[in-house]
Amino acid sequence: MASTSDIRNGLCIKYNHDIYKIIEFLHVKPGKGPAFVRTKLKSVTTGKVIDNTFSAGHKIDDVRVETHKFQYLYNDGEYYHFMNESDYTQIQLTENALDRPELMKEGEVVTVLINTEDNMPLSVDMPASVILEVTHTEPGVKGNTATNATKPATVETGATVNVPLFINEGDKIKIETEKGTYKERIKE
To answer: By the 8 A CB rule, do 56 and 34 touch?
Structure first.
């Protein structure tokens, strides 16, 4: 058992007969009344995100998890296939276990959280950022900008990201995986 002071991003807890991963939290101490923790929880089975508020000191049932490095192999339309880097065993996960599957390219190494009670994979943590090549984007027109103008660009995994006007096809860009946003252009 853990309490609300143990809440952190990535913590897996049992709540409402399901396992949820905490994706956002905020400790709130109002001037009047007791403190509480506002959380955003993502179900590891359905992928549904819910908001919940725990009162300070509330006991939460945490799930013991292990992390393992897995390499993303391929997507067959229904499942995403991964290979354990230490013992070469393979697992398959549905799309709702992944946070940003559209930013994952084959060969990418990710961290998989595994429930120690039943050895079932719970969720996949992507690296903080990924480097992908731009496969399609319209050319930027100079002179029609007032401030940070962006345009949509399609990257090699098929995802669409808003990028600055100076990005062209063939450029490699760094994308922040948590928000799916452009971070910087990578020079070769």
So the answer is: yes
The range of the structural domain enclosing residue 72 comes to 65-125
Which H or E run contains 7? none
Residues 172 and 159 reside in one and the same domain:
yes
Closest CA relative to residue 121, chosen from 70, 86, 60: 70
Instruction: Look up the CATH number of the domain holding residue 146.
Output: 2.40.50.140
pLDDT class of 6 with cuts at 50, 70, 90:
confident
Assigned token pair, 173: 């860009």
Contact 43, 22 (CB under 8 A): no
Q: How far apart (Å, rounded) are the C-alpha atoms in residues 129 and 100?
A: 11
C-alpha distance from residue 106 to each of 74, 128, 177 (Å):
6, 17, 16
- Listed in sequence order, the residues at least 6 apart from 131 whose beta carbon sits closer than 8 Å to its beta carbon are 172, 173, 174, 175, 186
The residues, any chain, with a CB within 8 Å of residue 95's CB and separated by 6 or more, are 47, 80, 101
| Average pLDDT score over residue span 176-186 | 86
pLDDT tens digits for range 93-147: 887 777 788 888 888 899 888 888 888 887 788 888 888 888 888 887 666 566 6
- The sign of the CA dihedral 49, 53, 57, 61 is negative
Q: How far is CA 120 from CA 20, 21, 66, 159, in A?
A: 14, 14, 10, 28
- CATH number of 27's domain: 2.30.30.30
